[in-house]
Amino acid sequence: MRLPSPAKLNLFLHITGQREDGYHELQTLFQFIDLCDTLDFSLTQNNRITISPEIEHLPTKDNLIYKAAELLIPFKSDPTFGVDILLEKQLPMGGGIGGGSSNAATTLLALNSLWECHLSLERLAEMGVTLGADIPIFVMGFSAFAEGVGEKLQKVEPDTPYFLLLKPNCHVATGQIFADKYLTRDTPPIRISHALKLDGHNDCLDVVIKHNPEVNEAYLWLKNHGDAKLTGTGACLFLAFDNLRDAERVKSVTPQKWQAWVCRGCNTSPTHDVLNQWIEQNRV
Ligand SMILES: C[C@](O)(CO)[C@H](O)COP(=O)(O)OP(=O)(O)OC[C@H]1O[C@@H](n2ccc(N)nc2=O)[C@H](O)[C@@H]1O
Ligand SMILES: Nc1ncnc2c1ncn2[C@@H]1O[C@H](COP(=O)(O)OP(=O)(O)OP(=O)(O)O)[C@@H](O)[C@H]1O
Question: What ipTM was estimated for this complex?
Fold first, then answer.
């Protein structure tokens, strides 16, 4: 079973409060983009989970793919089931586009089928959020207005523009941004009916820029071309375009020191599109 594992953008990200356990309450608009890692799953009967190649500086046991697979062990229909996973990584790490969370969700979805666990998407999302706040959106697979820490999801259908995605050469640690005392945590909550009309902002931007001068430089550059935004806690920035040609034109003049991609927003996750085809073809 070969599945794409897409990235997400936070079209806006408002921090509306902080819970007693330190986690932040937020409101955000999630949309997928067609920029993906690929995960290839082979069912085995040796009761082992292997991932190759290893991600540099990340022991297998810390890989969110491994942790997600471990969560499903108690639900396997046959205790001998194992899996060999091949990972083709394209998404930059620490980019605010949720690559690790997406890989974890793709693993939950794939093994739920291969190991015949028969868990609902809601149950997989509940299990996933224990590993990362961004996992439920990838499990559910639809664009959403999200609240809570990102797990209370309401389906929405925003426009699907082209995006220029830009990755400054730095890695932002999500925990460091949320721990900063200058982060504003008091944006007034909005109603879902406003979510698609609003030109929302990202409350993390000022703090991310303060810690990462290179994000500032890329932000100022991208702003010359339109309404530049930060996704998640960065480092990636994006700009929306009505058409592919304009997006490609700005990409062609992007300073070479930054990675840049042109991609398209999508309101259903490519993982679900391919998984549903696989389920259809393998129905007995
Ligand atoms: C910024 C977003 O990407 C927006 O979609 C997510 O909220 C972050 O999700 P994530 O990368 O899956 O983050 P997690 O791995 O759950 O959290 C990393 C760390 O960030 C802090 N954290 C995260 C999410 C949140 N709503 N409040 C927080 O304070 C916590 O200290 C946590 O230990
Ligand atoms: N399969 C994985 N792919 C990428 N990162 C992983 C994976 N498993 C664990 N990680 C860890 O998670 C960290 C964050 O990676 P990720 O690509 O999800 O960042 P991000 O895009 O900033 O996430 P978010 O938007 O959810 O904050 C990495 O630095 C890495 O240590």
Answer: 0.94
User: Do the two domains 2-157+269-281 and 162-266 of this chain adopt the same fold?
Assistant: no
Class of domain 2-157+269-281: alpha beta
Atom 18, ligand 1: residue with shortest CA distance: 175
Please state the domain extents for the chain.
Answer: 2-157+269-281, 162-266
Q: Which residues line ligand 1 (CB under 6 A)?
A: 10, 13, 22-24, 26, 28, 96, 101, 132-134, 149-150, 174-175, 178, 232-233
- Tokens 């991932």, residue located: 51
Q: What's the pLDDT band for 197 if we cut at 50, 70, 90?
A: confident
- Residue 32 host element (H or E): strand 24-44
The token duo for 174 is 């999500």
Q: Is 96 annotated as a binding residue?
A: yes
pTM, full prediction: 0.96
Q: Which residues on neighbouring strands pair with residue 144, listed in sequence order?
A: 30, 155
Lowest mean pLDDT among 143-147, 176-180, 195-199: 195-199
Superfamily classification of domain 162-266: GHMP kinase, C-terminal domain (3.30.70.890)
**Separation of CA 127 from chain center:** 16
Region 130-140: mean pLDDT is 96
